[in-house]
Amino acid sequence: MSRRPALRRTALAGLAAVAVLAVSGCGDDSPAASAAGSGTTNLSGTVNVFAAASLTGSFTQLGKDFEKAHPGVKVTLNFAGSSALAQQINQGAPADVFASAAPKNMDQVTGINPPATFVRNTLEIAVPKGNPAGITGLKDFADKGKKIALCAVQVPCGAAAGQVFEASGITPEPDSLEQDVKAALTKVGLGEVDAALVYKTDVLSAKDEVEGIEFPEAAKAVNEYPIATLADAPNPDGAKAFVDYVLSVQGKAVLTAAGFEAP
Amino acid sequence: MLLLPALFGLAFLLVPLIGLLVRAPWSTLPSRLFSAEVWTALRLSLVCATAATVLCLLLGIPLAWLLARGALPGRGLIRALVTVPLVLPPVVGGVALLLVLGRRGLIGERLDLWFGFSLPFTIAGVIVAEAFVAMPFLVIAVEGALRAADPRYEEAAATLGAGRWLTFRRVTLPSIAPGVMAGAVLCWARALGEFGATITFAGNLPGRTTTMPLAVYLALETDPEVAVVLSLVLLLVSVVVLASLRERWIGGLR
């Protein structure tokens, strides 16, 4: 599988690690630093990345970029609600990297290396193009006459939505609790619901079908996304290199373009 | 020569179910079993599966009759089309239903416009999704029974002056009753276990559209033990229904 000497990769990995240290400046949780230490690794095989549904667009891009930077390495992506992914990993799914949309779901996984926060995301109201139901703000979510989709409480967007509603004293009247944020977004895109609470980045990713409405209470629940390698990753070197890549300048650029905020 | 793979086959089908029993949290089972969420989901599942089966009977028996007895061109093609939902991944069925019966769907848009009624996220939506996935089972079983039935009885009824409807009601239907029953049971069981089309088309809201399979899936992410308990209930219901019906009515399955 490994057809080339690791010279170029080593150089890249080193570059990435330096970039990470320079950008993030947080040396305490340092999977990046340790990766730089073992920088002579020969990358090959497949890297299995389990990522939160809200990362679908950006991680697909990052996976392609990573494969380009490391010829001979294949990135396999598995997107779902963070809680479903945590469950899969605990049941023995062969994951190398786990990127969760909330620390809570990261903590549910046993045998994980120290995670690093790589982005932040806030909620936004998504409505179908043209806003046919005339949604104006969070209070419309308490209107039984409106069709509303929320994320189920066990996935991060649902947990964040719960915090937002609690903070604002609104009791939502949802018509469906979706399994991950993309499922909620799809229901908006199809016009099946009048509104859903999704992430800002999801609204951006589907801007042809949906419109976003910002609301002040969103500041009450900002999700921090942790990423980590698995302790028993089938491909530990590949896992480290991928996490480093996500934390690198190039990785940050892709994530910022998708609307994520720096941690 | 055939015995060994046969035993493996049997073990393959049974061991996962035994695993469910082994891993069941027996000590906390009663308290978990009598929680409100389990009963809400179970009642909803039973009601929806039964309603879906009734819908399938009303539409499926005439369709099976058409396929078995009707002299229509392209019957083979129609039969193939009828069985498509059987092989189609249920999620795809759910997407298709959304695109047709959803609020902005081909037909759903009219329903919403004229009657202010939309199927997704309602109990009716669950029933439609289940019926869509389960109906082929009924149609195939009933068509098989119709083909096996001797058409001479119908002809005899006709010569005695019975109209088509009367013949169908008094001669054909009684003669295929075991086949209809078998088909209905299969259809009901399929509807009871339906997941993909339901969650896609009808969404998920406890008490309204969260059927047992959805509840199992959800519980697995929060409390795996509850998922096991729910699975056991579903297993028990299936076994009880299949066993009790088999003895009395389902001669056709033997």
Envelope shape of chain B: globular
Listing every helix as H and every strand as E from the N terminus to the C terminus, the arrangement of chain A reads HHEHEHEHEEEHEHEHEEHH
Beta content of chain B comes to under 5%
- Helicity level of chain A: 25-40%
CATH class of chain B: Mainly Alpha
Q: Using only CA atoms, what is the Rg of chain B?
A: 21 Å
Helical element count of chain B? 14
Q: Taking all residues together, what is the mean pLDDT of chain B?
A: 88
CATH class of the largest domain in chain A: Alpha Beta
Number of strands of chain B: 0
Largest interface (CB < 8 Å): A-B, 20 and 22 residues
Helix content, binned percent of chain B: over 70%
Query: Which whole number gives the mean pLDDT of chain A?
Result: 86
> If helices are DSSP runs of H or I spanning 4 or more residues, what is the number of helices of chain A?
10
Specify the biggest β-sheet of chain B.
none
Question: How many domains make up the 3D coordinates of chain A?
Answer: 2
Unreliable residue runs of chain A: 1-40
Strand order of the largest sheet of chain A: 2-1-3-10-4
Assembly level:
heterodimer
Distance between the termini of chain A: 36 Å
Please identify, by name, the CATH architecture of the largest domain in chain A: 3-Layer(aba) Sandwich
Protein name (chain A): Molybdate ABC transporter substrate-binding protein
Keywords (chain A): Metal-binding, Molybdenum, Signal
Binding site for molybdate (chain A): 54, 82, 181, 199
GO molecular function (chain A): metal ion binding; molybdate ion binding
